[in-house]
């Protein structure tokens, strides 16, 4: 009897541990996403550019080490890599509240911490995405991704609100401490997983550079993966250019207090739960590729409402835009992740994922930096509008690609 017949993957002890650890870690990270900018803005009185830079450096490692990280992870068992990464993240984020309590915290340290956490995240994400297909059956990947993305989105609802409450009650650095604790819980969960990955077939090990080239070639010569990588890059510039300055927009332009900022971002995150829950049903009705495009289009068009927000009840525009955007992005992420886990050979998954992520996640660093620069020079509201417009253009262009012309993603490479 399978886990699905007994009531789903949450009846599986090992999946439940992975799910608990990852959800807890995401809750901590969603607190830190608000807490780190709040520390910069409220405690260190940082400029808009510095806040954008703080976001950018967290994603910069994808550009610097993404390709070798993917090839390196493909050579090794994934769970030990994940354990090391989360342990490192726990230690570096723990340094922020310690430095603050000693009166030694600086903007330089925040940037170094964000960079170190970003390095750990590169290796963790590549290993995590490659680990899941070995933990669950192929036909359970859609269910697994829905549960993981849904719970992660639920954690992101509570995270910003907790960040605001912690900042108001105990200071902004308390949110960073919560993030460090969440990584510690994730380490304990990962250590308790009994499943061990199957041994890789013995073969002559090639040079790391050659394996990196194999991963790149696989993506470049595949019309679906290449489109997803390019679209992801353009979309992430727009999304991160928007998100990197939304705390500045809410706190400075609209005059929202710390608790209100947390509440607004929590409501925004609720869209992700809806997106994860509905993605499978939408895909079954209209096709996986069409559901992916529709999810992205819905989020992009609603994103245009964000820059129209005002103080007080005018925040409804920002919440509506963010809720829809979160639903669309998370829903499309579930479909995207499931497609790649079924489509890409397990022996190359790390390299292929890293090759795509170098482009798409590396663009997040550019988006964060661009959002900070434009927010400082052209204005925060104007920059939000520009980034929303870029997202709409990116989704419109997707309609003219092989993904936009098919009903379903292919089950295997032809």
| Helix content range | over 70%
Under the CATH scheme, the architecture of the largest domain is Up-down Bundle
Supply the CATH superfamily name of the largest domain.
MFS general substrate transporter like domains
Number of helices: 14
CA radius of gyration: 20 Å
Residues in β-strands, percent: under 5%
The parts where pLDDT drops under 50 for at least 5 residues are: 1-5
CATH-derived topology of the largest domain: Growth Hormone, Chain: A
Instruction: Find the count of extended strands (DSSP E, 2+ residues).
Output: 0
CATH class of the largest domain: Mainly Alpha
Structural domains: how many: 2
Q: Biggest β-sheet: count, sense, barrel? A: none
Apparent shape: globular
Derived from helix and strand composition plus strand pairing, the structural class reads: mainly alpha
SSE run: HHHHHHHHHHHHHH
Intertermini distance: 33 Å
* pLDDT averaged residue by residue: 82
């Amino acid at each position: 009897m399978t886990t699905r017949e007994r009531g789903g993957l949450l009846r599986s002890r090992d999946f439940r541990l992975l799910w608990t650890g990852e959800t807890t870690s995401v809750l901590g990270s969603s607190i830190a996403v608000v807490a780190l900018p709040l520390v910069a803005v409220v405690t260190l009185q940082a400029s808009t550019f510095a806040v954008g830079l703080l976001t950018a450096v967290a994603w910069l490692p994808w550009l610097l080490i993404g390709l070798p990280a993917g090839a390196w992870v493909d050579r090794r068992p994934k769970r030990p890599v994940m354990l090391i990464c989360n342990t490192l993240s726990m230690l570096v984020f723990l340094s922020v509240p310690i430095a603050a309590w000693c009166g030694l915290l600086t903007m330089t340290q925040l940037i170094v911490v964000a960079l170190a956490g970003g390095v750990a995240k590169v290796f963790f994400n590549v290993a995590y995405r490659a680990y899941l297909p070995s933990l669950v059956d192929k036909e359970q990947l859609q269910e697994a991704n829905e549960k993981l993305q849904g719970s992660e989105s639920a954690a992101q609802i509570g995270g910003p609100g907790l960040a605001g409450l912690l900042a108001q009650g105990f200071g902004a650095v308390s949110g960073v401490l919560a993030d460090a604790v969440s990584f510690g819980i994730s380490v304990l969960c990962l250590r308790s997983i009994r499943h061990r990955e199957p041994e890789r077939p013995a073969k002559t090990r090639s040079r790391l550079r050659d394996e990196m080239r194999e991963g790149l070639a696989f993506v470049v010569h595949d019309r679906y993966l290449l489109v997803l990588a390019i679209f992801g890059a353009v979309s992430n510039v727009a999304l991160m250019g928007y998100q990197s300055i939304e705390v500045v927009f809410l706190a400075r332009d609209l005059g929202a207090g710390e608790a209100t900022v947390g509440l607004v971002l929590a409501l925004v995150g609720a869209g992700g739960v809806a997106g994860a829950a509905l993605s499978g049903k939408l895909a079954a009705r209209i096709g996986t590729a069409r559901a992916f495009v529709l999810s992205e289009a819905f989020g992009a068009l609603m994103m245009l409402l964000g820059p129209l927000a005002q103080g007080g009840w005018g925040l409804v525009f920002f919440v509506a835009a963010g809720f829809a955007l979160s639903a669309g992005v998370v829903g499309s992420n579930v479909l995207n992740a499931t497609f790649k886990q079924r489509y890409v050979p397990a022996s190359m998954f790390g390299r292929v994922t890293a090759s795509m992520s170098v482009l798409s996640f590396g663009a997040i660093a550019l988006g964060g930096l661009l959002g900070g620069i434009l927010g400082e020079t052209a204005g925060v509201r104007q920059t939000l509008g520009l980034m929303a417009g870029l997202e709409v253009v990116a989704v419109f262009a997707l309609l003219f690609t092989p993904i936009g012309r098919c009903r379903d993603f292919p089950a295997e490479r032809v």
